[in-house]
Amino acid sequence: MKKLNNIFFIALFFLSLGFVSCDSEEEQISFKPGENLLISGPGSILTYEAGTFNVEGYTIDESYSWSVSGDGNATLQEVAGRGGEFVSIVAEDEGTYTVQVSNDVGLEGSVTFSVETVNEFLGVGQDTLRLTENQYVSGGDTLFLPINISERNIFETTADFNVVNGTAVEGTDFEVLNPTNVLTFPAGETQAFVQILLNDNTSLDGVRDFSITLNNILTTGTKSAAVELAPDSLELGQSVIYISDNTKQANLTVEGEEVEISSAGNFFIDVDLTAAAEDDVTIGYSVTDANGTPIPLADKTGGVLQIFEGETSSEIVLDIDEAWIEEGATPTELNVELTSITSGDEEVLLGSLTSFKVIAGPTE
């Protein structure tokens, strides 16, 4: 019986140690060690950016009370599903803030962090565009000129823009399709667009330009500190848009400056436009000998070419006389030159390659 009592007391002793050990382990997890609770969180955040703070080594079933104070407005909210030991804090103003927490057994802790305000950004996505009249025209594509705001667009933001005529004039050279000159960026959205159509006229006007500039910054909600300082803290911008005529050029499509031939019959010289004709094109040309005298019998297309709407080429046809290539004949020089060009849209010009020499003679 005495032996059994001894075994009982020994078992009770080890069981008691087990309780002490568990209690001690829980205390170390909870207090880590010291008199205050320890809090973990970011050292600095941006205005309106959420920062998460938590009690390190918390003990299950403890209750926590949180508060935040500092140089401006700040709010905190418990993170769902984390037993009250995590909170999310958003500060509206820059400065220094302190988060405090206490538990239901009288322990407390705190952490200090700073809040910075960064400049919001609002600018034109493309500061220079070079276009031709036939781009972004009615019935085709619309130019969507991007206007970008920073990714920290917390509230719905509006920005108005101005159309500044240069040598290009609104209503004549281009149209802006936005119903008003105000762009809206919903909360969290970072891009809006100025919609532009170009007008393809029928005269040569050279390169013209106009500008889209950004103006006042407005918000429908509470303004961040950066927006409050607008326009000083906002990078406003502009886009300059250049419009070129929808010109096309006509060139002889040949290799080199001259060619020697030794066979009679038709000889073809292509004339190509750099883009399809938007109206019928008429090209005048001449065929002359070495002295500049016309050789009408050699010209089978009669000094005039037609390139019709939608097409890009035509060809000059020369008739090489058999007498020019007979043995012992003196080579005949035929100088072909484009001399004039007209079109319904007045936007077709002679290019840089407009003359070519054909030398017809016997085989050496």
TrEMBL record:
Pfam families: Calx-beta (PF03160). PROSITE patterns: PROKAR_LIPOPROTEIN (PS51257). This is Calx-beta domain-containing protein. Residues 1-21 form the signal peptide. One of its GO terms (biological process) is cell communication. The keyword Cell cycle does not apply. SUPFAM superfamilies: CalX-like (SSF141072). Residues 157-231 form the Calx-beta domain. It comes from Marivirga arenosa. Keywords: Calcium, Repeat, Signal. One of its GO terms (cellular component) is membrane.
